[in-house]
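FORM 12-B: Structure-to-Sequence Request
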């Protein structure tokens, strides 16, 4: 099952989970479908696509049937329209009839509200001999999930001079509570958030800009989330480049007494673009000026920490959580880590390697 934002808008979290459990279906998610099932659920496979988990990639490639739920077949989740393949059977459920077969041919098209339609499918499944154990499928899913968890664990426990963004997300996962919200700016931050931020309960907890495109979205969007009065804390993850686009909005946080815990991933570069430069031209072109965003934050009357290692990061996150005002945590990170699977593969093959997807 690949679940998109349509399922979230229809609040179909319970029905998606119930159908997945009844038939042992792994649940892969899009950016706007993230959180439809908690990540620690055995069938919760997380983010699907070119920016996604390796378990989602494996399961999407190996499935014989792909059930698209409230999902518009966007570029990321379909690996730039390579999945579903023509060999896979496609069932597509969407509230908008025009979506069915618009991008991929659907073997079965279902037009309806996600919550209502999944509830009906559950009822039909219960009446047929479908509600049963599928041990082989369970093993297939559990093995894929475990492989990815081990892969992430290795990334997290690696020691290097610079923190990896994966380690920053791990530190955030350690402290974040189920009701907290993570807002991400465009570029890699959205990828780090979507792939590595753990959804501890079902529901929408991740806000990313559409198409991961508009840099500078992060801080204004986080201000919106804080002003809306969410139950939990609001976190913002932004790159050093994009954060500078709208950094003046720190004044809004100060003026309205709103609280956002801000993590700036400083790789001193337009990371996404520099990766493309390196992969396509084997050349690095950019450097961004060194800005101390912790000091910038203090200049706006807010709190700021500049952190290097894991210990300093955990301490700053704890301080930020306790505080009543907004905090900027400026984290110096390595440039050569990316949440884009195609980039990772291409850099492994070294230079002049055209990127297969994204
Ligand atoms: C408004 C806007 N301008 C330019 C771009 C093109 N662009 C995409 S990613 C990127 C680099 C972003 O750098 P940074 O915010 O530091 O994040 P990083 O990729 O380093 O994690 C740029 C310039 C964009 N997406 N949006
Ligand atoms: Mg950057």
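FORM 12-B RESPONSE
SEQUENCE OUT:
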């Amino acid at each position: 099952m690949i679940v998109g934002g349509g399922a979230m808008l229809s609040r179909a979290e319970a029905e998606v989970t119930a159908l997945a459990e009844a038939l042992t279906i792994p649940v892969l998610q899009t950016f706007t479908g993230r959180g439809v099932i908690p990540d620690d659920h055995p069938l919760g496979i997380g983010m699907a696509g070119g920016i996604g988990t390796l378990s989602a990639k494996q399961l999407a490639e190996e499935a014989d049937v792909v059930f698209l739920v409230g999902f518009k077949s966007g570029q990321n989740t379909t690996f730039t329209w390579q999945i579903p393949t023509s060999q896979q059977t496609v069932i597509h459920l969407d509230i908008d009839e025009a979506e069915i077969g618009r991008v991929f041919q659907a073997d079965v098209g279902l037009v309806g509200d996600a919550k209502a339609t999944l509830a009906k499918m559950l009822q039909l499944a219960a009446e047929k001999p479908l509600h049963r154990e599928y041990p082989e499928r369970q093993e297939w899913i559990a093995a894929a999930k475990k492989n990815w968890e081990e892969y992430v664990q290795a990334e997290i426990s690696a020691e290097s001079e610079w923190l990896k963004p994966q380690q920053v997300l791990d530190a955030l996962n350690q402290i974040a509570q189920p009701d907290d919200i993570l807002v991400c700016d465009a570029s890699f931050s959205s990828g780090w958030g979507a792939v590595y931020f753990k959804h501890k309960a079902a529901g929408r907890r991740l806000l990313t800009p559409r198409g991961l495109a508009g840099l500078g979205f992060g801080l204004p969007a986080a201000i919106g989330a804080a002003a809306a009065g969410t139950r939990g804390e609001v976190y913002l993850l932004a790159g050093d480049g994009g954060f500078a686009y709208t950094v003046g909005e720190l004044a809004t946080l100060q003026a309205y007494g709103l609280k956002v815990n801000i993590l700036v991933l400083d790789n001193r570069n337009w990371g996404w673009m520099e990766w493309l430069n390196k992969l396509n031209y084997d050349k690095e072109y950019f450097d961004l000026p060194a800005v101390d965003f912790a000091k910038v934050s203090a200049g706006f009357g807010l709190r700021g920490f500049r952190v290097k290692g894991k210990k300093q990061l955990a301490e700053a996150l704890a301080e930020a959580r306790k505080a009543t005002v907004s905090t900027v945590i400026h984290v110096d990170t390595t440039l050569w880590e990316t949440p884009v699977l195609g980039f990772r593969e291409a850099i492994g093959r070294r230079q002049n390697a055209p990127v297969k997807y994204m």
